[in-house]
Structures are given as structure tokens and as C-alpha cells.
Amino acid sequence: MILDVTTEAIVLDKEDLGECDTRIFLYTKDFGKVMAKATSSRKITSKLAAHLEPLSYITARLISKGDSVFDARGYQVADALLIGESVNWKGEEQKLENALKVSYFISRAVPDGVTDRDLWDFLMRVSVNKDDISVKDTLDFLGLGKEHASCEICSSSDTEYFYPKNNSFVCRGCVSAAPAYKKEFIKLN
Ligand SMILES: [Zn+2]
Q: What residue numbers bound the domain in which 23 lies?
């Protein structure tokens, strides 16, 4: 069965996959976080690619060969269109940098396919309203406040990274000691 859905979404991050594919991390209003492939988005349909920049607020049409919309694997972005005008961050570079850190953090830290309207509203504040929101605010919002957190491995209080697989914090020293896994940790500041 082929699934074909259209939903409002905020682009969280994108990652190049080889020559012509891009992996897009979306937070959708209806299905929560979704990872989807945009084939040839850089090569052929540059117009599509322009609407898939991080922090874009879009209408996305997603198709999937899976039979459940909650199975986050195997999505493809069939179409993407900006909603409203593209947000202008000119002169607000610091805020933009924070917003990109927040959207990257959410793209990696939040599980796929869980609909959460509060998180949707939070992301709208970050990407469309341009509220000044830090990764720390995001941790607090998600109930992962790091005030009392210590490194999962050595108990150091210098927690610079987050490990989304078990919602724990790790210090720089312990992350450096395991370079092969570095990609799985999210830098917090
Ligand atoms: Zn440590």
C-alpha cells in the first residue's frame, strides 16, 4: 500500500546522502518527527530544495511504501511549499544560530512518529515567531533539564553532550575517549 499524506511541517535539519539524495528531518504537525528522503533535491528540483532549508515552515507531501503512517521509515518528500513568506533573520544572526541548534537538537533527540502538539507549538515559536530559545530552554521544555545532571560514565558535572539513546548527559572527556561514537552525541553549546 502506498501512503500519500500532506501535513504542515517544520524542517529541522538536512543531511546529504551521496550524490543526489538528501535526508530531511521534519517535525510534522500531524505525525511528529519524520525522516524523509528528498531524491535529487539538489540536482534537479532546486525549487524543492529551497523549501527544505532548516527552520522552514512548509506544507509537505510525503509518500511512503510502508502501510502505517507511524512507521517513520521509508518516507519520501514528494513536494514541499513554504507557508507564508520566508522568515527573515537578517541582523539576528545570533538568534538564528540558536534556533538552528535547537532544531538540530530536536532532529536528533526526539523519537520518530510521536505526535506532540506542545512540541509543535514550541517549534513554531523557534522558527516562525523567532522567539529567543536556547538548547537549554529546549531541554527544560522536554523535561530533560540538565541542572542536576552529571556525566553518565564518570559522574563529572561538566556535561557538554547529550546522548539521546537513553536521555543521558556525557562530558567532553568521555566523548573524546570514544571517537567512533562521537556522531551519536549531541553537543549542547
Ligand atoms: Zn565523563
A: 1-138
Domain count, the chain: 2
CATH number at residue 102: 2.40.50.140
**Ligand 1 center–CA 164 separation, angstroms:** 16
How far, in Å, from the CA of 13 to the mean position of ligand 1?
28
The alpha carbon of 180 and the centre of ligand 1 are apart by a number of angstroms equal to: 16
Write the DSSP string, the chain.
--EEEEEEEEEEEEEEETTTEEEEEEEETTTEEEEEEEETTTTT-HHHHHTTSTT-EEEEEEEESSS-TT--TTEEEEEEEESSSPPP-TT-HHHHHHHHHHHHHHHHHSPBT---HHHHHHHHHHHTS-----HHHHHHHTT---TT---TTT--S-EEEEETTTTEEEEHHHHHT-GGGGGGSEE--
pLDDT > 90 fraction of the chain, expressed in percent and rounded: 57
Residue range 54-100, pLDDT digits in tens:
999 999 999 887 655 554 467 889 889 999 888 899 999 999 999 99
pLDDT at 72: 47
User: From ligand 1's centre to the CA of 160, what distance in Å?
Assistant: 9
